[in-house]
Each structure stands twice: as structure tokens, then as C-alpha cells.
Amino acid sequence: MKVFKPFWSFNIEKTEAWLDEKAREGFELKDVNLYTKVFHFKDNEKKKTTNSIAYGINQGGAISAALKREGWTLLCSKKTLFNKRDWTFMENVKRKEDIKINPSREKLIKRLSLISGLFSAVMIYFSIIFISFSFLLLPLVIQWALGSNKVLYIKSVAEQSSIPKNMSYFTSSDITGTLKILAVIIVLIVIVRALEKRKKSLKSITKKVELLENESKEYSDVNSENERNSCLEDEASFDEDSLVVKKRRGWWFEPDKLEEWLEEMESKGLNLYKLDIKGTKFYFVKGRKRKIKYIADYQNSSDDSYYEIYTQDGWESVFASKGDFLKWTIWSKKYKEDIPRIYSERSDYLKQLRKRLFAYTCYFAPLLGITSYFFIKMLNLLPGLIEKDRFGILPLYLFVLTPLLIWGELYVRVIRAYFRAIRVNS
Amino acid sequence: MCIDRILKTYMPMTETAFYILLSLGQPKHGYGIIQHVEKITNGRIKLGSGTVYGTLTKMQNSGVISVCSDEERKTIYEITELGKELMRVEVKRLKELHNNAVLFEEDFKNESI
Hints:
Shape of chain A: flat
Structural class of chain A: alpha+beta
Helix content of chain B: 55-70%
Number of strands of chain A: 15
Strand content of chain A: 15-25%
Oligomer: heterodimer
Distance between the termini of chain A: 61 Å
Largest sheet of chain A: 3 strands, antiparallel
């Protein structure tokens, strides 16, 4: 029996439930064609099995030992293009509730993040086009609607040749074109929202966060547990006087300075309570002096196990940027004597610094490249303009020079932070 | 990845990589690895979470460890057959080093004692 399921990989839980159903009907999965999206079944006895679909690093089609011990058996395993990952379909005779060890969902979640990210990027691209189009089109439409005689509405391009010189115009194809782009944007928004919903359901966020919070309490010192409890008591009795708010933008370009500043605040008795969503406002509570190590950690791509490992080790996440990619997290850990570190090997520390610098360079290089290019072009025009006495072009210069200087200054700060960090002994 | 590329990538193993892979002879959580290594080195090596996360990611991508989720949806790591092959080669190398170190230990004895 063959079944065509084109979108099977976007709702894994539904597909797994469907495979369970097929097994109950007496069809065992024999093969899956990743390209034609066809599932091949062979006739079998009716079985009550739990099915699971794993997406992971190419393991040569084998199931790991831990899974085998739990009773999972391989149905089929398919390599994807470029051979880096494979899809593994497996079944277990135990009931879903009785199964203790399951394949990891991490790579599946990452895959959805990547696809969702790509759609979002396309959506942003179209949104920029839409906004610039509307920005030019909307005033004309409004003027025409209000009965201005300076604006013409033209049905087709053929009439363009007969337009008087002082009139602005817009065509019906301008309108339909803009509306088409809007439609595309709406479709993309729907797709991205659906993908995010699938991601959330795979993560089962609430249960995990609860458990992680309980874990970090388990693993930290008994003393710091008491400290935390007293902190929570203070929280309940917050009033205007004890809360101090400080603004600090762009700390992610110079994270070492942020860490120093936060530790300085703590030594003055100002305890960091939280940040706002955007990560620019810092809320401090007047309290005791604390010995806390703050670390601003950057990850090109993060996942649940990133948070698991750090929180299990006693680090608390004070702030985390949104999304799984280009992630900034501010971690804190109380200590007594030895300053806690997250990189125990210098080579790992240096590797992270290099990754961060590389990411920033990829971000700034095109921006600086484009603005410098325009700046140089305009420099060539300058002598000619001075002759013709056209200083009206000066604002345009500032329009190009300002972003160049702003971005340039930020990038210089990034580079200086990198060299400062290399010299640190930790 | 095939064994040759693995050997090229990892050999000789750093202390961190060796101890992490050693700990994963039995399935463990990320923090279990940190605790285990601290215990068997008598506190000499306290692995940092960033180091562990980075190394585990790298090892997962090379195929020397496998990942699963337990009932609380927490991640469990374990060594794979490929990882075991790597460890066998590395243990052989370490045994050779150890035997020679013991053999020539006399040359480095502290004379003043």
C-alpha cells in the first residue's frame, strides 16, 4: 500500500499518530521516499505499536543502544540530501505512556526553526518592498480620492504617453501589484505562525521549564538557596524606592564591559532583578552586596540542551534574546571563593570569541560595504557639484555618511572588545 | 563520518574530550558528565558548561555520541559504536604512553631526596 503525504515532516506528532493507526490496521511501514513523499506499507498482523520519527545526525541508519534497550526497533532509515542527516522511523511495542526513553526532538525543532527563519526573512524582504511601494503610492491614492486635479488614475500603460507634464499618476497595475505583495506577505505570516506552533508543541515548553527550574534549585548550594528565598521575600514587598532602573543599549557589542558593570553594581549592593524584553533596561533592587559572576554568552545557534546544561550547573538565566539563532544570554552564578567559569579550556573560550567576531563581521561587512560604496561614488561627484553650485546635495551626503559612521564606530567597538577578551587570562 | 576522519579530528584527544567521552560509556545527562569527571579526577578537572555544551555538540555532529530524551524530556547522551572505536584507539595510545613513562621514570627522579 502506498500513501502520498506531502507535508508529513511539518507535523511530526500527527504523522506518528497516523503511523500508529496504520499499524493497528495491519500495515507496517516498509519504506519512505523523501522526494516523492510516498509512504510504502507492507501487510502485517495488526499490532498496537507506538511509532516515532527521529531526525538526527547520520548514524548510518542504526538506532542508538539506549533506544534499543527501551524496546525500539528500526522500521526504516533514510539519508537526506548531502548525507548529513537522516530520518529514522522506529516502533516500540510498549504503550506511549510506558516508554521512558524517546529519540531526541532537538534536531527536529532546529529544522523547524531554520525553515521558519527562512520564511520570516522572505517575509521581511517583501514587507520592505511593500512599505516602500505604499509610501510612494498611498499619498497619490489619497490625493486622487479627495478629488485633487493634480493626480490621474490611469487604467493601463498605453495611456501613459498622453499625460501632461505636471501631473502625477498611478496605474491600476500599481494597485494590483501592491495588493499582490500584501497577499504574499499574509500567506507567509500564516505559514510562519503555523511552523512556530508546531515547534512549540514539539518542545512541550511548560513542562520542561518547570523541571529545569526545580533542577537548578536542586543543584545549587544550600546557602544560596536560603539567599534566593530571602530575595523572593523581598520581591513581594517591592516599593518605588527599592527599585533602580538603568538603561544600557548595545551592550552586546562590548559584553565584557557589561559584565564588569553588573558586577560593580552588585558590589555596591544593587542586585540585578531582571531585564525588559528588549534587553535595554536593567532593573536593580537595593539589597546586600553579593558576589555574583555575570557572563554574557553568545551562541550562533542554541537549543534546549544549551539551557539544560547551563542551568543544571547552577547558572541562572537573567536575560535571553528571542529566537534560537544569534542568541545572547546573560547568565549569573553566585560564588564564595572561586570565580565560576563557563569555558574550562582556553581553546573553547577563544573559539567562541572568534565565532562571535565572525558573526558580527558578516553583519557589518555588507552594511559598511554598501554605504562606503555610495560614499565614494558621491565623493567623485563633489567637484562637479561645487562648480554647478548645487549644495542641495549636501543632505544626501549626510544621509550616506551618518550610517557609515554609526556602523563603523560599532564595528570598531566589536573589534576592540575582541582583542580585550583575548588578553584576559580566563 | 568514517573512523579515519574521526581519528584525524580527535587524536590525540584533549583531556576534556577524553574524559567526556569516557563518562559517556554509560548514558548520562549533561550535568552528570560534569559531576562524574570531577569525581574521578578528585576535583582536579571541573568542566565548564560552555565547554561541555560545545564538545557535546561537536561530538554529536561527528557521530561519536548519540542523544535521546528521557521521560522528563531531558537530554541523555551516550557513546556510539564509532565513539567506542575512537576510545579503543586512544586507550591503546595512552597505555603506550603510560608504560614508557613508568619505564623511564628513573631518569626524572628527584636526586636531592
